[in-house]
């Protein structure tokens, strides 16, 4: 018998559907941040460094502490 708690439940949604919904939620949150003028945290895989991207397109790399 398989036991399932509420954290394991996905309400019948597939992994692909959950992934799509998560990606859309992140996209919407980033659009809201742009409208509010708040920087978005991103990661540069080429430079292997995190940075903040401002609504004007400016990138500010985060210094390691």
Structure description:
The chain is of the alpha+beta class and 65 residues long. Helix content is 34%, strand content 20%. The chain has 1 helix and 3 strands, in the order H-E-E-E. The chain has a 3-stranded antiparallel sheet. A hairpin with a 5-residue loop joins strand 2 and strand 3. It is elongated and about 45 Å long. The protein starts with 14 loop residues before the first helix and ends with a strand. The mean pLDDT is 87.
Characteristics of this structure?
elongated, 20% strand, three-stranded antiparallel sheet, 65 residues, single chain, alpha+beta
Calculate the mean pLDDT score and round it. 87
Please tally the β strands and state the result.
3
Major sheet, described briefly? 3 strands, antiparallel
Query: Please, how many helices?
Result: 1
Distance between the termini: 50 Å
Rounded to an integer in angstroms, the radius of gyration calculated over CA atoms is 17 Å
Please tell me what the overall shape is: elongated
Low-confidence regions: none
Structural class: alpha+beta
Strand percentage lies at: 15-25%
SSE topology string:
HEEE
Biggest sheet, strands in spatial order? 1-2-3
The amount of helix comes to 25-40%
């Amino acid at each position: 018998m398989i036991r399932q708690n509420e954290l394991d439940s996905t309400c019948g949604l597939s992994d692909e559907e959950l992934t799509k919904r998560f990606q859309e939620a992140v996209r919407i949150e980033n659009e809201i941040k742009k409208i509010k003028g708040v920087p978005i945290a991103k990661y540069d895989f080429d430079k292997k460094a995190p940075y903040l991207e401002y609504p004007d397109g400016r990138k500010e790399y985060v210094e390691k502490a």
